[in-house]
Design goal:
4-stranded antiparallel sheet; 426 residues; 10 helices; 16 strands; binds zinc ion; Alpha-Beta Plaits
């Protein structure tokens, strides 16, 4: 049998193990927030990867955003050296899952198998992908024990809340330095025949309009910050949203609606704080003197972040010109630059050949509308040769009755094993 066929057969033979591993991972509820059971899942992965001949390190992101003694941010990095010198291929998966939410018909932490799928919170995002990468690596090691270079597998904390206690921390410590790691694959649920090259940029900001408090029966004695904010929203509707819809990108972003610049108004709050649900009193009559809005602007690789910020300031300055007492502050909350790996990068072309060999057609190349841990690998780690590739359907992430297809996991693991063969058996 040809080597590629042997590898595929070896992965296929491990189907039951792949399912059991996915179930085990789902059954450790790693909810974030608050960041639960990270140590437990790292210990589980540690036992598994030690058995497969990996050298492992458990690393707590001590002092990182989110880390506390109650909910410590544990990460695992496992490395297995090959028989000779070569490059290192690293599979990075996040171990955290988002809240359960309503509407489930199965136990979110039960890992139930039904109709060829494994169900549970994190099944597709992304414990199925993590399991696929482990089984792919183990199958590859069994068939090609004399491979060159090294294989790394990491399970990292907090991707869902920015990755500061996970990949960002490890990148700061040099774990993604190009001298140590040459290829990174992040098994996020992008579908088994698609290669994700990167993501759009993010700019979050808080805008505050200012007014003056007064008695609500005499609003003319005060200055209503909520009305000022209303004027900001009206100006956004009139000029900003139409302008953003005009900005189209050449990045292959999916879904189609995200092929343009977008802005979400995350929240607006002005005036008296909301009371607890059991509060039976009435509100007090006051003119609100502060109103705050949080905006979430997603931008394109063709845009400059300075222009993104200037565009928002232009809206505020235009409103200011037409309202005598208008005063505002704006504060940046978060920024991530867009990133896109070159289609000719070695990890992209190797994964593309593996997709072709598994499915008989070339992959689709996509870019994610939102960010994921590639941002830290690129910006802090300075490693450009990175993609997201993994089983599962992105639309199911964070939804009730989340699942991952078993056949999809097997085929993705075959693609990952063939990618290892491509990069490490030369
Ligand atoms: Zn994810």
């Amino acid at each position: 049998m040809e080597l590629a066929e042997k590898l595929k057969a070896e992965v296929a033979a491990r189907r039951d193990d792949l399912v059991a591993l996915t179930q085990d991972l789902i059954r450790i509820p790693t909810l974030n927030p608050p960041g639960q059971n990270y140590r437990e899942i790292c210990d589980y992965l540690d036992r598994r990867l030690l058995r497969s001949g990996f050298h492992t390190e458990l690393i707590r992101a001590k002092g990182a955003i989110g880390d506390s003694d109650k909910c410590p941010r544990w990460n695992i990095i496992a490395r297995r050296e090959g028989a000779r010198a070569g490059e290192c291929v690293h599979f990075n998966s996040h171990i955290d899952v988002v809240e359960v939410g309503h509407g489930w018909t199965t136990d979110p932490f039960g890992g139930e198998v039904r109709d060829g799928r494994v169900y549970g919170r994190g099944a597709c995002d992304m414990k199925g992908g993590l399991a696929a990468s482990i089984v792919a690596a183990e199958a590859f090691i069994a068939i090609c024990p004399d491979y060159a270079g090294a294989i790394e597998i990491s399970g990292t904390a907090d991707e869902e809340s920015g990755g500061f206690g996970g990949v960002a921390y490890l990148a700061e410590k040099g774990y993604f330095a190009p001298s140590r790691v040459q290829h990174v694959i992040i098994p996020e649920p992008l579908n088994k025949d698609r290669i994700c090259l990167g993501h759009r940029g993010v700019w979050w900001a808080e805008i505050e309009t200012k007014g003056e408090i007064a008695h609500g029966s005499m609003p003319f004695l005060g200055d209503c910050a909520v009305r000022h904010m209303g004027a900001v929203v009206a100006e956004m509707e009139a000029s900003l949203f139409p302008a953003l819809a005009e900005k189209r990108t050449d990045m292959p972003v999916v879904p189609d609606g995200a092929k343009q610049s977008t802005l979400n108004i995350n929240s607006i709050h002005g005036g008296e704080a909301e009371q607890e649900a059991d509060y039976t009193g009435l509100p007090s009559p006051c003119v609100p003197d502060r109103c705050r809005m949080v905006i979430d602007r997603r931008f394109l690789i063709e845009e400059d972040i300075a222009d993104v910020e200037a565009e928002i300031r232009a809206v505020l300055d235009k409103v200011q010109a037409s309202r005598e007492t208008f005063d505002y502050d704006i504060r940046e909350l978060h920024r991530v630059l867009p990133t896109m790996t070159d289609k000719d990068a070695p990890v992209v072309t190797a994964a593309a050949r593996a997709v072709e060999a598994t499915f008989g057609h070339a992959p689709d190349y996509v870019v994610s509308p939102g960010t994921y841990d590639q941002k830290h690998i690129d910006r802090i780690g300075r490693l450009k040769n990175c993609i997201a590739y993994g089983p599962g359907i992105l639309d199911l992430a964070h939804k009730p009755d989340e699942y991952v297809g078993i056949e999809d996991m097997v085929q993705s693991a075959q693609v990952m094993a063939l990618t290892l063969q491509d990069l490490l058996t030369v």
